[in-house]
Amino acid sequence: MRHSTGEKWFYSLNYVLLLLLGIGTVVPFLYIAAVSLTPLTEVMRHGGFILFPTQITFAAYEQIFTESLIPRSLLNTVIVTLLGTLFGLLLTMAMGFGLARKEVPGRRIYIFLVVFTILFNGGIIPTYLVVKNLGLINSLLALFVPTLISPFHLLIAKTFMEQLPGELEDAAVIDGAGEAGYFVRVVLPLSLPLLATLGLFNAVYYWNLYFPGLLYITKADLFPLQVALQQLVTVPEPAVAAEAVALPPETMKMAGVVVSTLPIVIVYPFLQKYFVKGATLGAVKG
């Protein structure tokens, strides 16, 4: 297919812009990884900016996991992410299944209440008072229980289930399955792309959880990863300050960023095919 001169210039400009965008996206990650793996002398020799380490050391990572809050906060975040994602998906799919059934009494009222919470949030202070009165302050439950069900995710799940053919349920009933059996054996397997998409959304949210950790947690051993990382970045720990000559705080900061980012970077490619397909599920019918 032939292109005019104007089209060639247009495509060339697009390629250049995409190349610059790609470089601008990759360079910060290269810098963070390189600084975390490079000895202080090499970092200083390059003026503090290095993209490819000439000498590799894991001293920053060793100190991160032995003399900081990162190991404990990493465990806390893993627990919160797993439980929040699992129970969030279970409750979202179960409630979406109920709202998708037109014979449910008051269905429109429930849907209106769900949409209402998207438009008008309860606010920080009322939410804090609810969490406090439930006795969840300084508990990992406070980090995921209040946000188990996302109204947006719920509407997507409801709309997706409304699009399932009614013949599937008829066939399940003929085979002797009740509503629970139909939900578990038919709806959930067909919802795998949707589950992967919502699961990825939930996992990324809980993994990057920061503000609820500041709001509900005051004990250092219960901090989520992002709060511990923020303290590492803004407040050098005594162990780091004592060895500032051999191991500068900047090196540990970069190591902490790598530790907090790497798990999501590893998991995402495996779920990408489901994410691309599931991102449009439930978007056809409102």
Describe the overall structure:
The protein has two domains: 1-57; 60-286, MetI-like fold, CATH 1.10.3720. The protein contains 14 helices and no strands. The two termini are 40 Å apart. The protein has 286 residues and is an all-alpha fold. The longest helix has 33 residues, at 5-37. The radius of gyration is 24 Å and the shape is globular. The chain crosses the membrane at residues 12-34, 74-97, 109-130, 136-156, 186-207, 254-271.
**How widely separated are the two ends?**
40 Å
Query: Mean pLDDT score, rounded?
Result: 81
How many strands, what sense, and barrel or not for the largest sheet? none
Uncertain segments:
239-248
Strand residue content: under 5%
Shape: globular
Radius of gyration: 24 Å
Oligomer: single chain
**Percentage of residues assigned to helices:** 55-70%
Query: Helix segment count?
Result: 14
Secondary-structure element string: HHHHHHHHHHHHHH
Estimated structural class: mainly alpha
Going by CATH, the architecture of the largest domain would be: Orthogonal Bundle
- Say how many strands there are: 0
* Name of the level-1 CATH class of the largest domain: Mainly Alpha
At CATH level 3, the topology of the largest domain is MetI-like fold
CATH superfamily of the largest domain: MetI-like
Protein name: Carbohydrate ABC transporter permease
Keywords: Cell membrane, Membrane, Transmembrane, Transmembrane helix, Transport
GO cellular component, one term: plasma membrane
Organism: Paenibacillus thalictri
